[in-house]
What we know:
The chain is an alpha/beta fold and about 375 residues long. It has two domains: about 25-215, 3-Layer(aba) Sandwich (Rossmann fold), CATH 3.40.50.300; about 275-380, Arc Repressor Mutant, subunit A. The protein is about 50% helix and about 15% strand. It is built from 15 helices and eleven strands. The radius of gyration is 23 Å and the shape is globular. Magnesium ion binds near residues 51, 52 and 158.
Amino acid sequence: MGKAKLNNPFTTVGYYGSEYFCDREEETDQLVTNIQNGNSTTLIAVRRIGKTGLIHHVFAQLPLNWKGIYVDILATENLNEFLNLLATAIIRDVPEKSSLGKRFWEFIKSLRPVISFDPMSGEPQASFNVKRSDAELNIASVLKFIDLQDFKTVIAIDEFQQILNYPEKNTDAWLRTIIQQMKNVVFVFSGSRQHLMSDMFSLPNRPFFRSTQMLPLKKISADIYADFVMRKFKDHSKVIDIELVYEILHWSNLHTYYVQLIFNRLFSASGKHVTAEIWKEQAMKLLAEQEIVFIGYRNMLTNPQWQLLKAIAQDEQVYMPTAKDFINKHNLGSPATVLRSLKSLQNYELVYSDFDTNAQNYYTVYDILFSRWCSERGIG
Ligand SMILES: Nc1ncnc2c1ncn2[C@@H]1O[C@H](COP(=O)(O)OP(=O)(O)OP(=O)(O)O)[C@@H](O)[C@H]1O
Ligand SMILES: [Mg+2]
């Protein structure tokens, strides 16, 4: 993506090029290697850690004879909408007037979609309104058409677990069959619902079982992130203490989006010298702004769910949520209640489970700002 230089080196939405992208060197190499060797990849990680960013980063450095097509299917609810997105992604990527564009547009038009232009961005969009069998046929022919081109293509399907919510049965089996026949296309399947994703690719009775290389995406290491942050401030002739950088990285739990967000604020609020006072002030401001979101959680949840969310936020990493100690400390009722609430909180994507460096499973809240807000307010 050729974008203009930004005033603030810490981006919080989208991908603006390698200059603004921290690390991910190993993961990028791994993905590029998989692609060049014709292997599809499954990218699984918690929300806001940088899956989508990594896909765009890899797309920006694909070998010359490769083309990347990206679709985020989170908002789709059925195969017809999936088809619309796929067709739209293809015509958006190539201008109608180019020779390749001509071929693509003619092909897509031959499937008889309604082609319109987004009133805001002016970008083209294709929409079909067809029954299941036609949606399947059209998706299959779009994919086959791509496969027949004289270049290679990577199709990244982001939030892939969403196909499990489609009303059409066995979408994954059907899709897997088509994909298996393709010679010129590799896939990147990415998703944040870790259980759904890993079940789809690692259970023997599932169609996608072992069909891809798994690439888990972890947090960026503190040393590498600190180095990136220091460099970015220095590039803009700003001075920040390395200890302060580490303190902030710790405060943001090294969770990519939150790290970016807080440094974005700090960068814009500070003059030449970035002081601890400015940092504290910005952190408090951020928490105050988010308060309405946190109150929203409370209104959305039952009381036991809310109590459990606060308890996990307060303890940060909870290894045994049904243990007596934890339940008594936070007054959470019975283990059965805790288990039920835990499941709901995971479904709402407020809590997730992860493994520590000793491969021990623990639960933690997604939103580190919520944890910080609870401890600032003495809530918990
Ligand atoms: N390596 C990186 N360096 C700098 N910023 C990054 C990096 N990775 C991600 N970001 C920033 O963090 C934000 C969140 O990342 P991204 O959207 O890629 O996460 P995600 O895992 O796809 O999240 P979700 O599951 O919510 O879709 C992005 O908007 C981007 O600005
Ligand atoms: Mg994403």
